[in-house]
Amino acid sequence: MEIGKYHFDLEHHSYIMGNLNLTPDSFYDVSRYQDMDAALRHVE
């Protein structure tokens, strides 16, 4: 498969794609943190 200048060999390789949505309206209200320390505590 060719996408632009890139070639992807889908017959012999697997590819993983991720999508990170950082728009302010994309987060569930309960998962919002007011400061970095609170977010890091949640990650731990």
Question: Could you state the order of secondary-structure elements as H and E?
Answer: EEH
SS field, number of helical segments: 1
The low-confidence runs, each spanning 5 or more residues with pLDDT under 50, are none
Q: How many angstroms does the end-to-end distance come to? A: 40 Å
Main beta sheet: 2 strands, antiparallel
Kindly estimate the percentage of residues that lie in beta strands according to DSSP.
5-15%
Number of strand segments: 2
- Strand ordering within the main sheet: 1-2
Instruction: Indicate the overall shape.
Output: elongated
How much helical structure, as a percent, in the residues?
Answer: 10-25%
Q: Write down the Rg.
A: 18 Å
Q: What class would the helix/strand composition place it in? A: alpha+beta
Mean of residue pLDDT values: 83
Quick structural overview:
By secondary structure, the protein is of the alpha+beta class.
What does this structure look like?
- The protein has 44 residues and is of the alpha+beta class.
- Helices cover 18% and strands 9% of the residues.
- The protein contains one helix and two strands.
- It has one helix at 36-43, and strands spanning 2-3, 6-7.
- A two-stranded antiparallel ribbon has the order 1-2.
- A hairpin with a 2-residue loop joins strand 1 and strand 2.
- It is elongated, with a radius of gyration of 18 Å.
- 0% of the residues are buried.
